[in-house]
Automatic annotation (TrEMBL):
PROSITE patterns: CYT_DCMP_DEAMINASES_1, CYT_DCMP_DEAMINASES_2. Keywords: Hydrolase, Metal-binding, Zinc. The gene is tadA_2. CDD domains: nucleoside_deaminase (cd01285). This is tRNA-specific adenosine deaminase. Its EC number is 3.5.4.33. It is an enzyme of class 3 (hydrolase). It holds the Pfam family dCMP_cyt_deam_1.
């Protein structure tokens, strides 16, 4: 293998397969097989759409590669978004694949509370008496996004959602944010600072952001403007599902965010500049103002 950069290149292809899986309603796993620098197979899982518990990305990629170049895959490298499960690991061993690389590990999944068999792929290779070179943690952060519970929840909500569905989700968001505010308002010290600063601090708390991820870039007596760069499950879900955030976010959460700042003072108003919104910009430009 030519090194980490090449592994990362092919991992991005595998991530693309995993995202296609999620768009289809499957479980979000992707794999590619390469030999001599050329891709011989790319696949994702079809567990849900085919109703087949064995239809894992790695198994499907091995089948495609075997049909192309024969069942002996010696000299091939398999790159997978997630560490192969025991079934896939033993299939890798039997197929003769020489190297594998993965991003998200079984231990990562277990730490998230995901249902996994606590059996690492290297254990399978040892049991099979097979030498397979293993590259761990390739684009781990990018792969981990595929398996975050909050991103998965947003994907499930937004996949095939109509405008009416988005409005219903917004109503649910209003209820949840109202409940959250009631539980956390004591920590805001309302009245101890300027209204705009309090509202800004409220949003930082609600979205689990650091101040540097939502910096104020412009301030007047009546308005502050800030650039949000924090992790956003809705943004990631829209990116994976190929939805326009300018449409989704307006219907899904602008009203609920406006409602949240109004809990501090009814004169406050939250707004967005939809000409500066991720992923079309590197930040979401948002404002809180005081209306007379």
């Amino acid at each position: 293998m030519n090194g980490v950069m090449e592994l990362e290149f092919w991992m991005r292809v595998a991530i693309g397969e995993a995202e296609e899986s999620l768009r289809e309603g499957n479980k979000g796993f992707g794999a590619v097989i390469i030999k001599d620098g050329e891709m011989v197979a790319a696949a994702h899982d079809y567990e849900e759409t085919e109703g087949d518990a064995t239809s894992h990305a790695e198994i499907n990629a091995i089948k495609i590669a075997s049909q192309k170049i024969g069942k002996n895959l010696n000299g091939c490298i398999l790159i997978s978004t997630s560490e192969p499960c025991p079934m896939c690991a033993f299939a890798i061993a039997w197929s003769g694949i020489s190297e594998i690389a993965f991003g998200f590990s079984i231990q990562d999944a277990l730490a998230q509370g995901r249902r996994r068999i606590a059996f690492q792929c290297v254990e399978a290779f040892d049991k099979a008496g097979t030498e397979v070179i293993v590259h761990k943690g390739i684009l781990r952060r990018e792969c981990a996004i595929l398996y975050r519970a909050d991103v998965r929840s947003e994907i499930n909500h937004l996949r095939n959602a109509t405008d009416e569905d988005l409005k219903a989700l917004n109503a649910d968001s209003i209820a949840r944010r109202t409940a959250w505010f009631c539980q956390n308002k004591a920590g805001l010290n309302i009245g101890d600072s300027h209204l705009l600063d309090t509202a800004h601090r409220l949003l930082i708390m609600r979205f689990h952001a650091a101040e540097v991820e939502m910096p104020v870039v412009n301030r007047t007596e009546k308005q502050i403007t800030f650039h949000s760069m924090n992790f956003c499950p809705t943004l990631e879900a829209c990116r994976i599902l190929r939805l326009d955030t300018r449409h989704v976010c307006k219907l899904l959460n602008e009203e609920s965010t406006d409602m949240l700042v109004k809990k501090i003072d009814s004169r406050l108003r939250f707004s967005r500049n939809y000409n500066n919104l991720r992923p079309y910009s590197s930040f979401c430009e948002e404002s809180i103002s005081i209306e007379d």
